[in-house]
Design brief:
Distance between the termini: 19 Å
Number of domains: 1
Number of strands: 0
Number of helices: 13
């Protein structure tokens, strides 16, 4: 199995894991404050990451890598989780998942800017079509429904795309799991302080589903998923493997319907199927 194929397998595994993030966040913010949820998941994952780094005696990153790690922390550890948690106060997880379809284009653009990749023109056509389908669907729902939620999701997508691309570049030197662990550890002083400040006064009113949601986003969304995702991006190419994110809405819709009993309209499914069809074309012309 060649390196590119292995990268796609790792990337797909990461996408499947990430697909549960928004439904789990939706459940968690029913009882947890969005800011507390953001920093709590980062603290839990960061402490586990610190244990892993110490256990395997990993060398500290070079000074030249600190800025890049800070970008990963800002985009993936703090920015995306916080913005999506805030957005899910205004929109359903099924609606928010549609915006994840914009991540492939955002990741590809930052892959060019930060990773030096140069996909062929046809790649951008397929990627743009997929993104246009997703954006068109969101606009068709009417921005008056929750413009705040939609704007928060768009901001989350942009900052996450930057974090993905920056982390993928670093993974080529440091390794996939090392990058996310160091990014989490780097943010610990801030996340621990915020966690203490925003901690609930009592846990009596917090239900079991919220704890399950917190556990999932802490272990899988914040740590395990990135181990596969960054390795996939590094081996298969940021722009190419990034197109697998078009599949995330499909998996997310299924989870939202099965676990949260949220309605998934036919229009959502049609848009998702059409967007998924863009993956094959984009992959063919990614390099």
């Amino acid at each position: 199995m060649d390196k590119t194929t292995t990268g796609w397998i790792y990337g797909l595994t990461g996408v499947v894991i990430f697909s549960g993030s928004l439904p789990a966040t939706r459940v968690a913010v029913m009882d947890f404050d969005p800011l507390f949820l953001t920093v709590a998941r980062a603290v839990i994952a960061g402490l586990l990451g610190l244990v892993l780094l110490l256990a395997f005696r990993e060398k500290c990153p070079a000074r030249s890598d600190i800025v890049s790690l800070a970008i990963v922390s800002l985009g993936c550890v703090i920015g995306f989780p916080l913005l999506t948690a805030l957005a899910l106060k205004h929109v359903t997880s099924a609606h928010s998942i549609v915006f994840i379809g914009l991540l492939p284009l955002a990741t590809a653009i930052f892959g060019v800017l930060r990773g030096g990749e140069r996909p062929r023109p046809a790649f951008w056509i397929f990627s743009a079509i997929g993104s246009a389908l997703v954006s068109g669907y969101a606009l068709a729902q009417g921005m008056s429904a929750s413009p705040t939620g939609d704007l928060l999701m768009l901001s989350a997508v942009l900052i996450c795309g930057l974090g993905y691309a920056e982390g993928a570049v670093l993974s080529r030197r440091l390794g996939g799991w090392q990058v996310i662990c160091w990014a989490l550890v780097l943010s610990l002083p801030i996340t621990i302080a915020l966690c203490v400040v925003t901690m609930p006064h009592t846990i009596d009113g917090i239900g079991g589903p919220a704890w399950i949601g917190l556990t999932y986003v802490s272990l899988f969304s914040m740590l395990i998923g990135f181990v596969f995702w960054y390795r996939g991006l590094a081996q298969g190419g940021i722009a190419a493997v990034g197109q697998l994110q078009f599949l995330q809405p499909f998996f997310g819709f299924a989870l939202a319907a099965a676990l949260l009993k949220e309605s998934v309209s036919w229009s959502m499914l049609v848009v998702t199927i059409a967007v998924v069809g863009c993956v094959a074309g984009a992959r063919k012309f990614a390099r």
